[in-house]
Amino acid sequence: MSKRAQTTGAPRRRRRRKQAAIAEGSENFAAGQDESSYKSRAEREEQLQKWVIRGVAAVVGLLVLLVAIAFAFEQLIVPNQVVATVHGEGITVREFRQEYLLERNRILLQLNQAQNAGFDIQQLSQQEPYASWINEVNVPDQLGLRVLNDMVDDRLLARAAADRDLSIDDGAVQRAIETYFGFDPTEVALIGVAPTDTPEPTVTPTPYVSPTPSPTPLPTATPDANAATPTVDQISDPTITPQPTVVEPTLSAEERRENFVQSERDYRGYLDRAGVAPETLDSFFERNALETALADALLPDDASLLYADVRHILVADEDTALAAITALQDGESFAALAHAISTDPGSASRGGELGEAYVGNYVTEFRRAIENAEIAEIVGPVESEFGFHVLQVRSKEERSGADVAFQRERARQQELQLLKDSLRDDQSESYEIYDNWIDHVPRS
To answer: Please, which residues have CB within 8 angstroms of residue 349's CB and are 6 or more apart in sequence?
Structure first.
C-alpha cells in the first residue's frame, strides 16, 4: 500500500467517529432539553393553579368579611345609633324599632277586634281613633313619627314625675296590667259574697309565664257611635287601653282570675311572635303606671271640677264674629242669631245652647274663655280649630266628691295631656329629633 493511501484513509475514520460522537451528544442534549422544557411547563401550570385557588379563596374571604362587617354594622352598630335625645339621653334605633312594633301590633289587635265585633273598615275609617289608626298602619312613616314623639313625651313626663318625687312600685305596675285587661281585683273579690259581708279585697299577682301559641288576645275595642259636636275636644288618652272582656256573670272569682291570666299570656305570646321583646311590653306597663300616678297627682280625689252652662255662636271668620258681638250688644237675640248664622250644627238649632257640662270637655281655647268669663258676659271672638266663637256663660259651679267620680278620670287624662303639651313648649330646647329616624322605621 502506498504512503498516500495510508495517510488519506485514517483521518477520515477519526472524523467519522468524532462526528458520530458529536451527533450523539447533540441528540442527548436535545432530549435533555425537551425533558427540561416539559417539566417547566407542568410546574408553571401547577403554580398557576395554586394562584387561581389562592385568588378565589381571597375573594371568598373578602366577601365573607364584607358580609360579617355588614351584619355587625346592622346588628351591633345601627341599633345603638341615636334618633333623638331628651335631656341629653339618647333614644336608640333599637328602642325606637321596638316601640314601633309594639304600637303597630296593638293597633292591629284593636282593629281586628272591632271587625270581629261586626264593624267593617269603611265604618271604622269614619270615626276616631280608628281612622287615625288605619292611616298609621298604612303609612309607616306616619306611625313612626307619632311613636317617636310619644317616646319624647314619655321621657319628659318621667322627668316631671321625678321632679315631683313620684315613683312607682311593683304593685302599681301590676295594677296597670290589671286595668289594661279590664280586671278589677276588688270587684272579683266580692263575687259570691253577701252584701252584709265586708271582706278585705285581695290582689292576686299575675304570674309572668312563657309565651305559648294562642288565638287573638281577648282585649276588645268598642267604637263610639256618638259623633262629637265641633266644640268638643278630641283629646286622646295617653294609652290605647282595651275595654274589659265581656264575661258571663256566672263565672266565679277564680274563673275570672284565670281568664285574666290567660288573656295576659295570650297577649304576650302574640307580641312575642311579632318580634316585641318582653321587656318592651314591661316598660309599656311601667309607663302606664307612672302616668296614672302623675295624673292622680295633677287632679287628686278631693279636687273639684268646674261645670258651666254655656251657649255659643260659631262662625268661620273673625269679622263675622265681631259683627255678631256688635249685634248682641245692640240687643239682638242670642238664640235667633245663633240659629241664623252659627255653623255648629249640634247647637245652632237649639239657639246655640250647649247645656251644662264639665268645661274640660271643650277645646282648650274655649275652656279657658269659660273659666275667665263673667256670668252673662258676651265673650269673643275666641279662635279654635273649629273657627271663631262668641259665647255666653249662664252659670258656673265647682263640683267634687262622688258626683264627679266618673268625670274625674277623663279630667285626669286631659290634665295629663295639657302637661305634655306644656312640657313640649317649655322645654323645647331639652329635646331634639334627628332626621335619620325615618331610615329606621320597620317596613314589614
So the answer is: 339
Round to whole Å and give the CA distance between 109 and 133.
Answer: 11
What does pTM read for this prediction? 0.65
Secondary structure (3-state) at 91? strand
The 3-class secondary structure across 338-382, one letter per residue, is HHHHCCCHHHHCCCCEEEEEEHHHECHHHHHHHHHCCCCCEEEEE
CB-side neighbour CA atoms (13 Å) of 142:
9
Q: Cell 279585697: give the residue.
A: 201
3-state helix, strand, coil in the chain (%, to 5): 60, 10, 30
* Maximum C-alpha span of the chain: 176
Q: Which helix (H) or strand (E) holds 436?
A: none
Do the beta carbons of residue 174 and residue 206 sit within 8 Å? Answer: yes
Joined together, the cell numbers standing for residue 290 give 307612672
CA distance 431 to 160: 14
Among the listed residues 274, 222, 226, the one whose alpha carbon sits nearest the alpha carbon of residue 244: 222
pLDDT in tens, the chain (444 residues): 444 444 455 555 555 555 555 555 555 545 555 555 555 777 777 778 878 888 888 888 788 777 777 766 666 677 889 999 999 999 999 999 999 999 999 999 999 999 988 888 888 888 888 999 999 999 999 999 999 999 999 999 999 999 999 999 999 999 999 999 999 988 888 886 765 544 444 433 333 223 322 333 333 333 333 333 333 333 233 333 344 444 455 788 888 999 999 999 999 999 999 999 999 999 999 999 999 999 999 988 888 889 999 999 999 999 999 999 999 999 999 999 999 999 998 899 999 999 898 888 888 899 999 999 999 999 989 999 999 999 999 999 988 877 787 888 888 888 898 899 999 999 989 999 999 999 999 987
Residue pair 135/399 in contact by the 8 Å Cβ criterion? no
Handedness of CA 339, 344, 350, 356 (dihedral sign): negative
Q: Distance between CA 184 and CA 182 in Å, rounded?
A: 6
| CA–CA separation, 29 and 26 (whole Å) | 5
